[in-house]
Q: What sequence folds into this?
């Protein structure tokens, strides 16, 4: 099986990156991870790229044309799938038009509910019965795009933000690989 070459974009802890690196080692998982892009030099996730000898691009989003630099790297490493895994910068319309291949994102809610930031506090305020995560194709609108995979759990009476986050991430480690398998199932 020829694996598709993927890049993971991160800004923070990188626990989804770590999980995807592990999955990508399975012989029948459809992708290999050939580039990590990070916009935060203090991101813990950088360590996962380094430990696993994955090419790493740390970008300064304050610099003009930083997206062009990313596009060059994507070309250099022949990347055909971008996975946004906690990447806290919105990709410009120009970037989306220039990168003609697949871009997917993971969001910590059951979209279309709770798009945007501070999802966990809003979920609790709204007294939701259940929540979870969504993997979707990236479109020009934030947290929009067609849904590929969702996983959910029921919220307990005593669950706080920390607990909900932890439970959501457990679901993320299942949903992201599942979405990637779904994308390539027939290709
Ligand atoms: C995840 O919860 C994801 O849903 C959100 O950012 C978080 C990233 O976590 N978009 P990590 O960096 O993968 O640990």
A:
């Amino acid at each position: 099986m020829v694996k598709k070459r993927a890049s993971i974009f991160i800004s923070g802890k990188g626990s989804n990156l770590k999980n995807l690196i592990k999955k990508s080692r399975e012989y029948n998982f459809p992708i290999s991870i050939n580039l990590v892009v990070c916009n935060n030099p203090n991101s813990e996730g950088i360590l996962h790229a380094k430990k696993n000898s994955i090419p790493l691009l740390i970008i300064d989003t304050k610099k003009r044309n930083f997206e062009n630099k990313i596009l060059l790297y994507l070309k250099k490493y022949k990347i055909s799938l971008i996975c946004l895994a906690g990447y806290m910068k919105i990709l410009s319309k120009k970037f989306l038009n220039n990168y003609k291949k697949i871009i997917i994102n993971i969001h910590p809610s059951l979209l279309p509910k709770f798009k945007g930031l501070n999802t966990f506090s809003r979920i609790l305020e709204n007294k939701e019965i259940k929540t979870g995560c969504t993997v979707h194709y990236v479109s020009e609108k934030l947290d929009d795009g067609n849904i590929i995979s969702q996983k959910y759990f029921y919220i307990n009476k005593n669950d706080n933000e920390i607990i909900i986050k932890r439970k959501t991430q457990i679901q993320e480690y299942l949903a992201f690989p599942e979405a990637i398998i779904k994308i390539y199932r027939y290709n």
